[in-house]
């Protein structure tokens, strides 16, 4: 196999040669193979040429059906082979990763028709793998013990063998256990409080083995936004600990569904503190020979941690529709934070002396020091509470305090946009009402390339959009009645998108009481692994898929998806992150809530028409609000040319 899919001429600029080859692909090779090539696709290809040639950031907004994935894959693969470093394709979530590499997907098509032999490997997030330590607990500690014992029995033989491994293979992927619910998986899957550094099974762990595999990719590493941002956030720390970064050095990044990167950055930049984790970690030091002064400080630190979390427990409030708890800062809580910080500082000073005595295990000592440094960084944000966002999450073993810097712009600027590599933001929805300012400003970008091309689909004849006007303001029963009516109209074949898990659960509980839907088969997000849920929906034409996380990226062409029902307008949640954004905005509704909602709504509507032959209906259900007419006007402007906003007629 040749390095490049064209005859490389050293006397000519590489980017120009790639552009010529891409032109051949779209004008000759793919049409001869039976592909329909669109003008919008070719236009996008020539726009990306500049971004790769000049190593710039580009917002590539291309409507549904333009084939944008094929375009950025061609450039990314060629650039990877030119630089001899892989390109990273970062998708919005794990389900989109699976769709990119599925049989018959875009990578498979390029392999088949262009004879590229693409080396593309998946870099999945740690929480997509079984944790061997948690699995040991789960198979004895829960009512589903038989499930976990079966999972344990299916582990590769080398996992629990004391002998040196002669051969191994990756295992333990969430996708391999499709019939486990999300709740069941959480009991055995990795989570952020698992300390892999001291795990005696880490070298036989499926996550570790998979990481070694994708690091060797020659062309593409495909991961999630969350994982890419976690790579950036942990890069320096992992190097200090003598570990490899999560991702190898790479030549370019494509952020598919790039408008969601800010949310991934915020998630990655959070610090998580938990009393039981701190206590377990700090008491490791007592297993060595330590001076009495350090032992006393450790006991005091455990008491201070418990005291801080006790006060925190009295300073949290529920947020409707969110698992996050609002933290109500007061002087008592801030005082406890300062006390805890002081004792951590004293322990850090003591550890300097201990390290010189060589009485503590160096590896354990380094882990504790790293954790204490993380805690100090997190707690220091409380000294300027206007610079942090925090919330709490409840679990069976106590509260988790989550702390995040108020802005992530500086981090994105330093660790993403200053790298001088080509960075592509690709999506059908990057602009808001004609401009890219909302997405660019959220990430602190003021220097970028951009373009926008519309879809080539005939939406006026392929799509109908309904938005009911409610007699009683859009009550739950009114929504149920309309949803059932629309489900009957298409005999299932529908995607229901919900704004929150609570909305989905309420619908799931009530739909069984509607005899009109008794013969319909429903799939609910959370009941099984998401990619298998999507596959089942596509295979069973008359089924119904209900989800919270599939507003973006779901690609199900054909009659299986002929009906999209949007249960609520997807305004941002009333959680601490968006509360902080609203506090700093001059007009919170216009600057925060409305642009977010319009982008997500456009994405949700984009799930319906995925090919020239598709047709169907969209129903947008919105409770009556003070700005109802303004909202309807914004939604009208969002619709493709020729599509009118209608009111459904009963029995239509």
TrEMBL record:
GO terms for molecular function: helicase activity. The keyword Hydrolase applies. InterPro entries: ATP-dep_Helicase_C (IPR006555), DinG/Rad3-like (IPR045028), Helic_SF1/SF2_ATP-bd_DinG/Rad3 (IPR014013), P-loop_NTPase (IPR027417). Pfam families: Helicase_C_2. Keywords: ATP-binding, Helicase, Hydrolase, Nucleotide-binding. Residues 27-308 form the Helicase ATP-binding domain. SUPFAM superfamilies: P-loop containing nucleoside triphosphate hydrolases. Belongs to the helicase family. DinG subfamily. This is ATP-dependent DNA helicase. It comes from Paenibacillus spongiae.
